[in-house]
Design brief:
Helices cover 0% and strands 45% of the residues. By secondary structure, the protein is mainly β. It has a domain at 35-116: Jelly Rolls (Sandwich). The strands form three sheets. A six-stranded antiparallel β-sheet has the order 3-4-5-11-6-9, with no helix packed on it. It has a three-stranded antiparallel β-sheet with strand order 8-7-10, with no helix packed on it. A hairpin with a 2-residue loop joins strand 7 and strand 8. It is globular, with a radius of gyration of 14 Å.
């Protein structure tokens, strides 16, 4: 879950998502930043969703999806309801909400507390 490589001065940390190796996730490929920064209570992911994602939920994690890029008919499914999204859409997903992305898109995901792969649940 390392966020390296990073540049750090006394208090600030600067990363480039392009320098972080992608890891597979239910949505496609995620690049996860700040997992190893103790002072930050969460993680930030840039996730490339290449196809319809698997429906999943988290018991502890809250996620905020910010849509950077997507196709015209992209959507987020929240507890079975399809919600259209476009670049600039922002979605707050609290624990226990079953969710998935529909259609290719690139999203920035803010996760609190820090992302834990053991907190990904599938029906």
């Amino acid at each position: 879950m390392s966020s390296s490589p990073a540049t750090q001065n006394r208090r600030a940390v600067v990363i480039s998502f392009d320098d972080i190796p992608p890891v597979p996730c239910p949505c496609g490929q995620a690049r996860r930043a700040f997992a190893d920064v103790a002072e930050y209570p969460g993680t930030v992911h840039r996730t490339d969703i290449t196809a319809d994602a698997q429906t999943h939920y988290h018991k502890r994690l809250t996620e905020v999806y910010y849509v950077l890029e997507c196709e015209e008919h992209a959507a987020i499914e929240l507890d079975g309801e399809s919600v259209p999204v476009q670049p600039g859409s922002c979605i707050l997903i609290p624990p226990l909400v079953r969710h998935r992305a529909i259609g290719p898109m690139r999203v920035l995901v803010l996760v609190q507390p820090k992302f834990d792969p053991a907190d990904e649940w599938f029906d």
